[in-house]
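Backbone shape codes:
===
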Amino acid sequence: MARGYEIVDRNWRCARGEIDIVARDGACWAFVEVKTRRGRGAGLPEDAITPRKLARLVELAQIYQTEHALDSVSWRIDVVAIELGPQDAVRRLQLVPGIGLDALATTPDSHDIGPLRRPRGH
């Protein structure tokens, strides 16, 4: 990941589920869900973050904090959305920090990370 994140854990698991990436962004802890799609037949990658999925991510982040004695830290849920094109070329790689139920659409605070291969005319 870019933007100065310090990766603390990858694929952290507990009985309730998995967090793809646990990272620190300065003093703030980021619990990152990575979603990948090949083509748009199933929608955008970030469309997979439903209110139910978001609630599960919050629950997992809270369990992680309890297990690691992170009682009073600042934290958030981030999403990395990846769209792949032909031969799995990355067409879009976007970080959406601090998602909430109304923050799944691209916002001014979302960041493209990494080189993007956009289709011509876009």
